Structures are given as structure tokens and as C-alpha cells.
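Now for a typical sample entry:
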Amino acid sequence: MNATELNQTDYCLQFSCPERSAPNAVYVLLCVCASAVVLLTVFGNLLVIISVCHFKQLHTPTNMLILSLAVSDFLVGLFVMPFHFIWLIESCWLFGHIFCVLFNFVSFQLTSVSVGSVALIALDRYVALSHPFLYSQGITSTVIHTVIVLAWFFSLLYNFAMFYVGGNFTDLVMCPGECLYFLGETDSWIDLLFVVIVPCTLMVVLYVQIFVIARRHASAIRELNQNIQTISKVNPVSMKSERKAAKVLGILVIVFLVCLVPYYACSLMTSTTTIDSSHFIVNNVLILFYLNSSLNPVIYALFYSWFQNCTKMILSCKILQSDCTFVNVVGIKS
């Protein structure tokens, strides 16, 4: 038995679920807050899913990527958040070994899909702004749907390899009332490289380029306004819409990075701490990561007029009308 196995065994020996007592005010407050976050995540992302799927005007490549992100966020709110919050509030895993295995796999799968979706959104905005004619001709519905399916499929293959092919589920520690998964050092660095370093570097580089292009477009618009007689094929309104969409999605990426980086930073530091403390730290930092799934619909609601109008129509049940397949939105991308 190596040192890691010994530490894990010692942890299991010292761990026990706390005795349950009558709910106090703090316990009730935690349950109410957790329920509110789960409901916001599930119904907020469900509104995004219904909006993009129902209204034909929203069937654009960018919105299809937003739909993919919303689906992963919706699944996080439905299958991951409730059990994670119960685990933290009760200080005990109540759902058994088999569900513990499934919970860890689904959590890793949805995490990698979210990272991939946000990276693809950044790439989509870059291509749309830097090569608008190529984008309008080459990025069709078939292309974007194929990309999304491949992103989910390769994420599934990656996580299957990490968990099963390498035999890493032998490192799943199943103490009574606990559900801990330990990645080996090599696997941790591989996961860090492919899920954090590569996509996050891509996002940062692309958005630096996007804002450079956006400033260039702004200068071009000012020149057009100064010389209105100049004939140009460039549509200033369209360019402004593209720039606004890039800025909003830039906010989406920044919020995503703020929620993502602390979790992986804490995960890397667990090798220098005891299993007990590392488990406590990582599980609590995970709350911030999962909150990203709740914040995305809030960002859409604050900055996207199409989402605001769609939400009003959905909540008022106007989408039940047979002829309601279009939404009255000016500047659908903004």
C-alpha cells in the first residue's frame, strides 16, 4: 500500500457522518439558498433552450453554440447541483456507491462540454468579425450542428478514457457517507492541459484579437459617418451588432474563467494538503464553478434583447399560438 492509499484509508477510518439533529436557522437558510440557485439554473437555461429552439430567427450559428452551452448548464442544474448541495449541507454522501460513480462521470463530462462550448463561441465570434464573407458563406447550420455533436462526442470519449480505460475509478474512495475521486498526478496534468490551459489560452488569444478587430471596425464606422457619400458594401449597423455581440460574449468568457480557474488552482494544490482539507476546499470551490451555469442566463437577460423578448412571450404563453414562430427583435445578435 503506497502513501496515498494509506492516507485515503486513514481518512475513511476517521470519517463519519454527523448525527442529524433538528434543523436550525443556518441549515434552513442553506437549503433555501441552494434551492434558489438550482431553480435559477434549471429554469433560466430552460428559457434559453426553448427560445433558441422555438424561434426561427434565433437559428444562427452563434445561438446554436449558446444552445449547446445552455443544455450543459441545464443538465448541471438538474443532475449535478442538487446532489452536490445536499452533500455539502448534510456533510454526508447519501446516495450510494453506484450513483457516486455516475455523479463524478457526469460532472466531469458536463464540465468539459461547457469549456468546449465557450471556446467554440470565442472562435465563432473571431471568424465572424475577421472573415465576415467567409463566415456567412461557409458556416452553415449543417457545419455548426456537426461541430457541436463532435464536441459532445469527443468530450465523452475523453472522459471515458480518463475514468475507465486508465482504470482511474480504482481511485474512487467510497467511505461510509463519502464520495471522493482522486486523479493521479499524471492524469491531473493531462486534465489541466486539455480542459483548462489549451481552451482558456485559446479564449484569451481570440478575444484579444476580437477587440482589436472591433476597434478597427469602430474607426471604419466613424470614417463612414464623416464621409457619407462614400459608397461601401460594409453595413455599419451590422458591424455594430457584431461588435456588441462580441463584447457580450466576451463578458460570458470572462465570467466563465473567473468561475473555472479557482477550482483547478485548488485541485493542483491538493497534493500539498491532507485529504480531509483538500476534499473540503475543492468541494466548496466547486460551488463557484457550478454557479457559472446559473450566471449565464442572467448575462443573456441583461444584455440580449432577443432573450428578454422571448422570455416575455414564453412566460405569457404566447408561444402556444400556432403562428408564433418569430420574435419581434431588432438586431437579433445583440
